Amino acid sequence: MGAKKSIIINGLIVGLLSVLLVKYGNPVNMGICIACFIRDTVGGLGLHRAEVVQYVRPEIIGIVLGAFLMSYGKKEFQSRGGSSPLTRFVLGFIVMIGALMFLGCPLRMVLRLAGGDLNALFGIIGFAAGIGLGIIFLNKGFTLKRTYNLNKVEGFIFPVINIVLLVLLISGSVLLIFSQKGPGSQHAPILLALVVGLIVGAYAQRTRLCMVGGIRDLILFKDWYLISGFLAIFVAALLGNIAFGFFKLGFVGQPVAHTDGLWNFLGMALAGFGSVLLGGCPMRQLILAGEGNIDSVITILGMAVGAAFAHNFKLASSAQGPTVNGKIAVIIGFIVVALIGYFNIERSVDFKVKGDVNIEG
After folding, report:
1. How much is the pLDDT for 4?
2. Is the pLDDT of residue 223 over 70?
3. Which member of 111, 249, 277, 353 has the lowest number of beta carbons within 10 Å of its beta carbon?
């Protein structure tokens, strides 16, 4: 009961802070979006040419550093990796393609619904369907093999990179690109965004908050622990949006969203399918990376390259809807993830996963 109370409190805090970020400048229904903010960050580094989504997001930096500080302080920081790194890179790339078809990560999906965007319902159904598809492979023995302990210095590299990015951002370095219009130009003050990221990262590290894990554990084990955190995020964000006047119920005219239900469904189904094989949603990957997990760092790099690729080659959706290139990419993504799932089945064991623990039976 103590653990469940903790994750519910964590969810309430994340939901309220997300609305607070919108109040102070972030795009509506995008207080925190891991996929969108990684996309914006790689744009800010000049890795894609979409001028409206270029800004190094302090929230991402804060989440990584918050998880790092909390795990280090609790003596849970551990450098480890070596679990099918290139496969994880590819899966991260594909998860980003799916997320940018929908225009949001699992967290933004909940925040969009809390803001009244009913298009998110198609995303939630698709996300759950994708996780269900991934569970089929888990039950057949899917595994990306074990991780190994690495030199401790290895685990410090990613947090240090984020510190360097923060210094460049605060200094307004000419090395970075800043959007002058569009979602990338809409952002809360750097200090506020950083502090929110630190709080979210620290709390998420303690509670293991993860929507993929929540739906997966609910299906496999009837365990409501992780999913209760996202239910709390929804409630807090809903109340906050109503209080600040951001709530707008409907399908049409929602901010940074499109109304193509089929491709909202398929985009998040692909994101869910890939994420369950990775063992966690995009936010969980950031937390694990902050804890010293190099496999999650590789996954994030895959997501970053996927975001750049999506905007450079017109795969990402816009408010006008999905592109032809994006639709083709999502279909190819399903095929690639299914092949990865099939060829990584360990047929000698019945393999399931709960939380971050591998369970063999």
Report:
1. 86
2. yes
3. 249
